[in-house]
Amino acid sequence: MDTNLLVTTHNSCVWLSALCHLTGVVLSLRTRQGVRMAGLWLPVAYTLAAGAVAVVAMAAYAHWTPIFFVQGREVHRCGRRCWFRPL
Q1: What does the pLDDT look like over 48-83, one tens digit per residue?
Q2: Is the sign of the CA dihedral 51, 13, 3, 71 positive or negative?
Q3: Residue 73: beta bridge partners?
Q4: 16 — pLDDT class (breaks 50, 70, 90)
Q5: What is the DSSP string of the chain?
Q6: What is the pTM for the complete model shown?
Q7: Helix 3-30 to helix 38-61 angle, to the nearest 10 degrees?
């Protein structure tokens, strides 16, 4: 298994998770209503989350994402577009 594939999938899913948490906070501040039909929304949310992980993994496998990890090299010197430099 390619280490970059695992690191890219993990980092991208962490970013998506943070975005979902932020969206949830913003939406909860806008309205104080409860969720209607929670029995329907919960399986839909889990299915969408699993689908998002699958899409991220496929994008990483197809090399549509930047390189996050190169064994023995620093990320910002990898020669391809990188999102963040290490501190």
Answers
A1: 999 999 999 999 999 898 877 766 655 455 555 555
A2: positive
A3: 70
A4: very high
A5: --HHHHHHHHHHHHHHHHHHHHHHHHHHHH--PPPTTHHHHHHHHHHHHHHHHHHHHHHHHTT-S----BTTB-GGGSSS--S----
A6: 0.69
A7: 150
